[in-house]
DNA sequence: ACCGTATCTCTACGGCGTAGAACGAGTAGA
DNA sequence: TCTACTCGTTCTACGCCGTAGAGATACGGT
């Protein structure tokens, strides 16, 4: 018998690795949603016994945290950008792009931090926080203010994608907005406003809405929290 | 034999009802989290066969939607308030109070709308939307602007509670902030800012943070979207 | 006394996460 | 060359899960 063993009816698999495990998990989630991912199914997809996965993650919840890391790791923040609000805008767009590219991961994105304590999360999920702090303190904000801004900013982003990715369409083959969204079920008496908004709801533009929100938020931050620190020479917008 | 049948070794149960089913489900979630709720466990808690629950909900996901309705139904909006931004402030505080009272329900609150199309959700979960639209159009906003404001507002609220309810503490019996949050695990080189923020992170004040955020958001909305409609005589803050 | 309906129970199926022990191949030391 | 050890993997098994399908029971109206 050959030693390499590269053949086989189901094509023997090359080798297992953390990367292959996690990216396959992400693929399954992208296709079938979080509920559609099981250790057994993932094992099947990798041509391995489910138990072999426990070499790469302590348990299923840890694996989910790692999937979050895999996605959030793609979010790059340029901490050397001297225009902090422009940089945040760029990050916001990148974050939205990620969410739109992986809508089924969004539940994990917003939900895992409620279960896993900060200090135990995969490092990749904490880098955006560290980088934001770096960016903002370099821009002259105090550490405390930097944290406030980070929180408003990512809170806003999470709220935005949760809004944008809401399930609206009930009946895709219908063309009339009201029927498409299934709003005809709502009692006319109780929900007149909502029903009359059907056409508006039906053509939500996420990218535009994000920009509008950013305008408000960044303007608000700029007026409430002028950079106080010494680092560079400020333009003194105030 | 008696007809009432009120006795029994495990004290026969009075009667099942939608309300009892849902409020027991909520209790279990409050105690054990969403993952801790199973149809079988819920049946056990009610002294009934699990299958009897399917008389009150089509399946488990519908039951979860109904739990969201049970919680969100407690959010009252006074659509007759002539000061829309004050009313939103009140609603914001009530929403936060609900989230703090039922932290384990928050994952459902933010996550179920991603799975259930608008038109198929329990009516109680849509009432805050309808009421907000009513409040804002009465205040003179166009329907479209009212929707925009609703979205920024609830997006902000969701972002806020997700921030506030993040799991931070790793080691509760520790007194030093860094160790309490488990941040000593983070490589000093890569996470200097985050580590130095440990004491600040450790005493997060959710209520105060909410007010700060509301200040920014409401001011922003007020400046970006002055009421345009005709209804009442406006105070013309502008 | 009867029936229809609403409520509830029984049984069973296929799937889940993962504990515990065993296995096989590869590597390093003797 | 033999041996000991490690690492990735697999096998088997346990106790959960959601829920389909069919049947039992209780009850309100006639």
The biggest beta sheet of chain A is recorded as: none
Instruction: Report the sheet-strand fraction of chain A.
Output: under 5%
Strand element count of chain A: 0
Structural class of chain A: mainly alpha
Low-confidence stretches of chain A: 1-12, 232-238
Overall average residue pLDDT of chain A: 90
Report the span from N to C terminus of chain A: 79 Å
Give a written overview of the molecule.
2 copies of one chain form a homodimer. Chain A has helices at about 20-30, 40-45, 60-70, 85-100, 105-115, 125-140, 145-165, 175-180, 190-195, 200, 205-225. Chain A has about 240 residues and is mostly helical. In chain A, helix 4 runs parallel beside helix 7 (about 145-165). Chain A is flat, with a radius of gyration of 23 Å. Chain A starts with 17 loop residues before the first helix and ends in a 14-residue tail after the last helix. The model of chain A is unreliable at about 1-10 and about 230-238 (pLDDT under 50). At the A-B interface, helix 5, helix 6, helix 7, helix 9 and helix 11 of A face helix 5, helix 6, helix 7, helix 9 and helix 11 of B.
């Amino acid at each position: 018998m050959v030693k390499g063993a590269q053949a086989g009816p189901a094509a023997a698999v090359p080798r297992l690795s953390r990367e292959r495990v996690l990216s396959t998990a992400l693929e399954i989630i992208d296709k079938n949603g979080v509920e559609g991912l099981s250790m057994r199914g993932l094992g099947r997809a990798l041509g391995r016994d489910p138990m072999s996965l426990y070499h790469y993650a302590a348990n299923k919840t840890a694996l989910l945290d790692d999937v979050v890391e895999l996605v959030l790791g793609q979010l790059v923040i340029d901490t050397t950008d001297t225009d902090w609000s422009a940089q945040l805008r760029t990050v916001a767009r990148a974050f939205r792009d990620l969410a739109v590219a992986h809508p089924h991961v969004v539940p994990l994105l917003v939900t895992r931090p409620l279960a896993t304590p900060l200090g135990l999360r995969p490092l990749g999920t904490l880098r955006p926080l560290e980088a934001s702090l770096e960016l903002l303190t370099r821009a002259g904000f105090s550490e405390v203010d930097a944290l406030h801004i980070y929180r408003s900013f990512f809170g806003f982003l999470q709220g935005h994608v949760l809004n944008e990715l809401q399930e609206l369409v009930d009946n895709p083959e219908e063309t009339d907005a009201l029927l498409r969204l299934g709003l005809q079920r709502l009692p006319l008496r109780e929900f007149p406003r909502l029903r009359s908004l059907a056409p508006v709801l039906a053509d939500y533009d996420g990218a535009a809405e994000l920009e509008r929100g950013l305008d408000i938020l960044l303007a608000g931050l700029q007026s409430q929290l002028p950079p106080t620190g010494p680092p560079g020479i400020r333009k003194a917008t105030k």
